[in-house]
Amino acid sequence: MKITPLIGLEVHVELETKSKMFCGCPADHFGKAPNTQTCPVCLGLPGALPVPNQKAIESCIKIGLALNCSVNRLSKFDRKQYFYPDLPKGYQISQYDQPFCSVGFLNLDSGKKIGIERVHQEEDTGKLQHTVLNGEKVTLVDFNRSGVPLVEIVSMPDMTSSAEAKEYLKKIHEIIRAIGVSNADMEKGQMRLEPTVNVCIENETGIYYTPLVEIKNINSFNFAVQAIEFEIKRQVQEFEKSGIEKTATNKTTRGYDSVKKTTFLQRTKEEAKDYRYFPEPDIPPFIIEEDFVERIRKEIPLLPDQEIFSLEKLGVEKKDAKILISTQNRLAIQIVHDYSRDDRIDSKKLASLIVNGKLNPAQDVLVQYRNLTKIGITDTTQLTQIVQNIIDGNPSIVAEYKKGKTNVVGFFIGQAMKETKGAANPKTLSDVVTELLNR
Ligand code: ZN
Ligand code: MN
Rounded CA gap, 102 and 119, in Å? Predict the structure, then answer.
């Protein structure tokens, strides 16, 4: 029996714009007093009209371009209808058949290309808080997050292991941060992960695909890995028991319990038709001009993989380059590039010293580098010769030493350092001086 997991990922990213997607309320909602950043638009009051946020759309297109997508010349918003208490309008403004960006890819380190199906723009929902108030179980709702710009990145089911899924997610995370559209802080829910998993099973009797499962709203890379691994095992066992195969309609949605490390059934998945998508009548369609796209493309800095490659070209080891890029150590990256033209400094060594916390890129790099890499003269015969000459030339100071004035050792070390133009290894030199004075 051969088992091949098929994993796709939906990633939601909250954009860090000043205002929300369709109104002027502040988009920065984290930690704010509940329901203080709302207005008729994001509360979904009757008659309120949405006005799209251009900056958010630019960020969405920027993400698409960074993921090698094409930008659709014609695009529009659609209404996705569903009922939930944190969705006051009864629908989410999203994009259905004409997203801003389609068909791109992301390269894993192995060279494998993971397809990107689409990158579209939508709005976030409010937040429910289940709690106990005056001894009564209640659910509170906070609309500060309602209408915050959200970008959804949908991959093809091209990943075949949880390790590939993790690498994909980390790369998406780094790209989002590098292009400056969001901090993508997972703990604040700025980046939320939804793996879709099924398994291809090949045995003596044929090839079978297990039903698709979408795992909702995961907020850490490791939880995503655990959830995917649990699902793969569960689906294989389930298939062995029931023999149920994937159909067009039997996709289900599961949650992940990070304590029990298991997934659990939430609901049988809605199909697109259940959402009754239709074009948002309050926002006219967009015609995206080529020069608008080119302007956004020019704003994209070197992407993490390109930066890693440029450091590798200077001789920096890949693992060190990855650390410098993933920790966004801009100063260190700059320093490594700047000193790559300096013959006195080896870029590989310099990067490794910084990564290992031995060299502070904010201080004098050359001095630190020299001190850290200096081996100096350790040849005791050569140093003995030099020190002996100094001792012979300064009998009175030797006499002081013999009387117990041991701090004159420093004088001899200093003189010998001068003689060697600072090239002596300090430890070896100090040993030689002490030995000769004690003779
Ligand atoms: Zn508002
Ligand atoms: Mn979505």
Answer: 6
